[in-house]
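Quick question, first post here. What does this chain look like in 3D?
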Amino acid sequence: MDSIAQLRKNYTFGQLSETEVPRNPLDLFQVWFNQAIKAQCPEPNSMTLATADQAGNPSARIVLLKGADQAGFTFFTNYESQKGQELAIRPQAALLFHWHELERQVRIKGVVEKVAPAESDEYFHSRPPASRIGAWASPQSAAIPNRAFLEEAERKFAQQYGDKPPRPEHWGGYRLKPTEIEFWQGRPSRLHDRIHYQFDGSNWKITRLAP
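> Answer (accepted):
Ran it through. Tokens below.
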């Protein structure tokens, strides 16, 4: 087997200049996100969400972005899951997008808060009925005895609610309001472009970082 250490790629797709980027990083994110869709990147809205527990131990998982605008980045989950419990203790998180086909990454840090119940309701009722039943059936992150436990719970809630299940109170959305965003563009010789935005309370400060 070839050594993992010998796996290399030369990045040549694009470039990024601190003198040409928009003053607002949310505008650049929208441009990059649309380009990721046009490039047919697999699940361009998939992102790593990193949280931490009370002791500061980090945890990361892949979730799906469901909204991005000037207010921040929105995703939905079970509030009683591990990430929900950690966000209740430490309402700060980091996001990471990686669009391999475009040789790009976007790193985001910020504060997190729950979205309004009406917004959670709207998104929940846009989901397929089976996914809505799944939100009831799965005690996300809890230990369960076997697969049959989930399947039985699914049958129970399907019988109870049919194809119109309401949104569980323990399920809904979060919005990460960014305080830092970094755009990474792969470049040759590992001299990558890294443009960092930091919000000072009223404006975004733009800095180039060494790769």
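The longest strand covers residues 171-185.
Residues 79 and 170 are 5 Å apart (CA to CA).
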